[in-house]
Amino acid sequence: MRVLIALDVTSQNTKILNETASRPWPPGTAFLLLHVLDPYPFAKAPISLKRAKEAAAIQLNTASQSLIEAGWKTETDVILGMPRRVVSQIAESWKADLVMLGSNEAGALMRLFLGSTARSVLRHAPCSVEIVRPSAQEMEAGKPRQMRILVATDGSEYSAAAIQSVANRPWPKGSTAKVISIPEPFMPLGEFPYLELKEIEDQNTAALKDAKRYAETGAEALSKAGLTAAAETPLPRDSDAREIVKLAELWQAQLVVLGSHGLRGFDRLTMGSISEHVALHAPCSVEVIRAPLDLTKNPKKLSKKGAKR
Length: 309
Hints:
By secondary structure, the protein is α/β, with parallel strands linked by helices. It contains 13 helices and 10 strands.
């Protein structure tokens, strides 16, 4: 597994790296610690830019020690450019499986800002993305601890890829998972003026039955992988994205995992997504799984791929 950690060289480095070092990873996992330095403020001071780049490189090398001491292959790099563009480009050229980056906690207004690094990476990275929000309680780097993992599924191949990704990783002993599937209520509009109440009830009953099947199938897969897993089918009282965020808070999840439906280009820029809303608003870390397109069409191939990681 190849994990790119995008770092802003600040005090937040330690929190993100402690979170990373506290988790067990598949054997052979490699890390790239990346800092993207915006050269624009230094346009008239090239010497200052050189010094800033050298200072960032030193800080990255220091920050990488926790992963190196834990026995992981780790490299560092400082690249000039705009972070919201360069992170995804490096993820593609380095062939990353996962990009991890810190959340923007500047407030609701900044979260809505379309140019934010987190939002841009979520939309454009060629691989899975995790927005890291370490728990408020300080943890000791390199010390694996039990985790509470909330997995959302809608029965799609993208959700199946998310469940497979969780199942393939060596979580700390005693970790628990909850797999949720929110049924899609049938709301008759003008196109269905002649539906009887019983027909509407049947549609909603079928949706609930499907959601239970999706959640139970996911929980069974995670149980077989060694996690203590349960299934839940919460009834929707708000949008799916807001419901997932609420459940993450109520259950005190440390990580939410869900699939991305892989929108590209203009569609992704204009439509947004459930995964994006959850990633930007959840109270904990959120991982959005983006399975390679050829693998989502072949679940067996996906399982074999995951087993090698």
